[in-house]
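Hi R.,

Here's the chain you asked about this morning:
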Amino acid sequence: MLRVLLITSGLFQLLTAAAQEPERTVLEVALPGVSKTDAYNRTVVAFIADGLVIGEGSSQDAGLVVSVPWVWNPGSTSRGELIYRANIVAADSGSRVLLSGTLRAIDSEGISQRVSGSRTGQMSTAEPITSKWRSKNAKHQYGWDRLERLANAIQAR
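And the predicted structure, written out as tokens:
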């Protein structure tokens, strides 16, 4: 019985610590000694390597990389579209890449109507992908995990 209490107590402490984690909507990748141009190229390569398609709003001069909407869970009643962004800024001794994303869910009624051909799916308003909701919402979990993969890939190149 004592073991169960210790495990439960440890789980409670773990859950409490996770609940107190500050919400983040941006991941920052510091690239000391890397030019803004090279940081942009690293970011584009990381996006493409992770299966994202670079969208029209992207610009090396502006230091912006934007993906086209990526469909999460296609064919499901809990489908969503995720768009990933990277802002690349020059720093004193290199560059920084600021990664973020937005999520728009498509409601199940809209999907069923879209499938029947009567009208397009209903999109919710876009909301930022956030670290706080990753344990409570599968779309946010997937979105945040992908931001972390992109950050690691950009850092490693």
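The beta strands are 27-32, 64-66, 70-72, 80-91, 94-105, 127-128.

Let me know if you need anything else.
M.
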